[in-house]
Predict the 3D structure of the following.
Amino acid sequence: MPLLLMLILVPLLCAALIPLMPRKSLAYPIALGGTLIALLLGVYGLFANEWAHAGAGSTIFAESYRWMPQLGLNFSLGVNAVSGLLIALALLLGPICVIASKTAITERVRTYYFWLLVLQSAMVGVFAARDLVLFYIFFEFTLIPMFVLIGVYGSTNRRAASVKFFMYTFTGSVIALAGLVYVAFKHASLTGGWTFDIDTLANTARSMSFREQCWVFGAMMAGFAVKVPLFPVHTWLPLAHTEAPTAGSVLLAGVLLKLGTFAIYALVLPFVPAAVVHFAPLMAVLSIIGILAVGLVCWVQRDVKKLVAYSSVAHLGFCMLGMFALNPTGLQGSVLYMINHGLSTGAIFLCIGMVYERYHTRSMDELGGLASKMPVWSSFMVFFAMASVGLPMLNGFVSEFMCLMGAWTASDTWATSGLAFGTAGVLGPKFAVVAGVGMIIAAIYTLYMVGKVVWGPLKLPGGHDAHGHDGHGHGSLGHGDAHHGTLPVDLSRREIGILIPLAALCLLLGLYPKPFLQAIDASTQQTSSIVMRNRHAEPVGSADLNRSAAARTTDKQVNP
Amino acid sequence: MIEKFHTLYPEMLLFVATCAVLVIGLSRSLSLRRLAGPICAVALIGAGLLAWTTATPARGLAVPNLAMYGKIIAAAVGLLLVFLLQGVADRDYEADVAQGRASFDPARTIRAEFWAFFLFSITGLMLCAGSTNLIWLFLALELTSLPTYVMVAVSTPRERSMESGVKYFFLGALGAAVFLFGFAFLYGGTGTTDLSDMALGIRSQIAGGGLNAATVVGLLLSVLGLCFKIAAVPMHFYVADVYQGAHSSVSAMLAFVPKAAGFFALILVLSAAGWGAAGGGSLPSPIAETLAVIAALTMTVGNVLALLQNSLKRLLAYSSIAHSGYMLVGLIAGPMNTGESITTNGVAAVLFYLLVYGITSVGTFAVPAALERRAADGHYDEPDRFEDLRGLRHSHPTLAWVLALSALGLMGFPPLVGFFAKLPLFTSSWSSGNTVLLIVLAGNSAIGAVYYLRLVGIALVSGGEGPSVFTASPFRSRAIAGYIAALALVVMAVIPTFDSAARAGAYATLNGDPTGGNAPRRQAVPADEPAAGVSVEPAPGVNVEPAAGSAESEATTALPLSTSSGSR
């Protein structure tokens, strides 16, 4: 069964069904059905026996269809353990987002679920693509659904947010495309045939000279660092998160940011290892600036959603730090961080959305002491906040610790001095120590937020009585007054139902991360050893290069 | 002369149709008058098929099969334009006649001339693609442009159309004078007007120590003059005003027909200038540098000015300038650096881009063309300012989708075919080592995204306050042209028509004579020419010509194009 193709096509087909439906009330069940079928297919995939191969680090569920031979383009899909986990995350968040939107979205329902489904299949496509152009297509295509979701269903400043989101990412990825095309061109000039197959190109790319690698590294990072987002190019994220509807925020934090980290893991690291090693300290410093500076920015936020949005930048800083430790521990921590951040931050956005639906505010000045009014909500909120801070026994701790541990041990001086835990790499204890301060800052701002909103004296925005009556209409679509009156004071069973699986996974990943670590072990080992083996660029195929250089000079001589 | 006769069948068919339209358009019977459009459509389909079946490659140029490819895409996009141009001419007058306010007077109608001029212009474009001689090329370029001046002027009853027409005419005449001057210098420098002889002459000049001054001046002036046709920078001033003043349907035509003619002419002149008959040669450096500067300026000026616009048609006009810049990048990359594939062949990339750009233009201009509002003076206005289009999503959801898809197509957003058209520009530019231009191209793609995104936002995001004052035009076929174009953008990317179309683009630049076809044989491939080892199947008209579908292309494999494998 072409599992990956179906994972992409099922949501797309359901999306195509939605505009054909006579009644808009059918959109929700179709979207739910589509995402659930995809989730079930994913679960089926989990139990397929091909995972033994994934454990060995090879690509599984591989499919390939001829698409555009003129361009050397194939529609080829396949996953390894890392992308498989991320697909699982996307599949899990799919139905959760649909269910979470049931009462929040009341206008233009069909358009909303249409784009949500399209987004779902594009996200899976990015992780599953084994062809560079296909990857790029899916990578870009996540922009349009998100652009519409933010632009139509966001809050007051939605237009600016959606445009900023789109422009940042699009500009970056055009530059990344130029870099990727250069690699393909390099391959063509060495072998004479055009292909965009990722594995083939990775081999070619590694044989590029150091200078070339640096340029390609710069181009690729221009595209992917924006998506992560890394420190100086993160400014689109808080705006986009704050303005996006709840489901948009969940998918943005949960999956879309991971497109950037995944692209760095799957493309940048194996393509240009020499440049990666060369620039790893710089990237680590940028990550640490993100962790510390943006952490402090979080502290002064008054808007809960904005605070969590900024905290994503800080969290992804840890993820990038682990990534550029370039040793198996750091990479494992980094990959695990992608999953964990998706679960806990996604859940926090869901929680914030639930309060917003009831009180139409996210300001810490207007909310307080919700524990007395919404005990169930409060317990979930505190739980997920702890998970995101990195409380031991919960998921955040495992990955954060591994990222720091990876950065600490990744030092060439240690590796050669015979210390048992030293691994090759260019970071070292000082990076880990400075980044560790970020954990404290994270604890401060998260606890501060939880303290304000959950504990303390009860404070509700003006005009709200015990039933959470809404006095002021909101400018945007999708937050109509009509429905929230039907919401109970505390969480409904539907809302609890979508938070429980996330909470269970947070707990599982915190208590017993071993199966996950085992699954990604081979892949991370492989990536790490590829980087370390190729850390010094050697001009392979110099004969070919000389030949083409000679050809160029003869061309020049022909010219007057 | 007589041996060129069979290459002109498509043009002859169009000429016959032109005469028929001229007569029919004057008929007193309304139903006969209404046949003008359908006759044009049938003639274009026929011309496309004829071009497909009767084309013969031209000897001695780097682009021997340009004629066939160019004529087919002219017919294909022309067919879409027929849909779009319905009801432009004589609208108010016909309404008066229908309501008995006026009696039909053949002296007052312009329908016949309008459609005849349209066909003349397409004929000129086809002749451009097939020309082998500078004089022929000049006449063909003028045949393409002269009718469009009139079409712009009569396209709406408003004065600004007249103004646009006059402006377009004067600047067009200036452009024509410049490239005619250039052609004259070329003749002076090389002693011939025949393009393939000229290619030989220029090559022997280069071999003998460099081009003489007259040739260089001739080439530069030709390129500059042709910049008017393709709307590139030093000659771009007319574009925004003309596009805005003309009816949107005519603007769509201006975005494709003169531009395509200009690019065909540029390709022919440049292939004489240095790509050489065997391919792989490069342009003389003054020309290459001039072109590179023009390309960079054109992209940047077009995109930056488009950012500032508040009018849909002006925005599209500047975007049209920017797209010419993109295509010039492909042109500079040249035809055949390392192979016959579209990924390295810049000219093939340009030819494919032209087709995609033509289809996308029809899609974008179809949106304002398909909407209208009756103004106080009884004439019809089309939506032009962005405010006019707000709420399009509610009032005309399908048109909103057409606008969104076309804007994304122009942006080069994957997976629409616009992306696959732009990708070969990137790859061919890498292959030729034009890193600076490539960076400019990438940067400009990002700038372009800003204003195309505004269009997408208007189409998909913006809410309308109150009902739209614009209603659907009674000429449904204009919207249908938009639907076809938008569908083509999606379909061409998904199903392998892309591949065949791209192959056809590459084929246009392949050397060597085909080994089959209805045409008389020419001599065999010279052994030293790197004939391509690919068998190319013709893929005309992509999906706008149902008659040229895949079933038929299976059936006609005996047709042109299995080139024999030479020494590679």
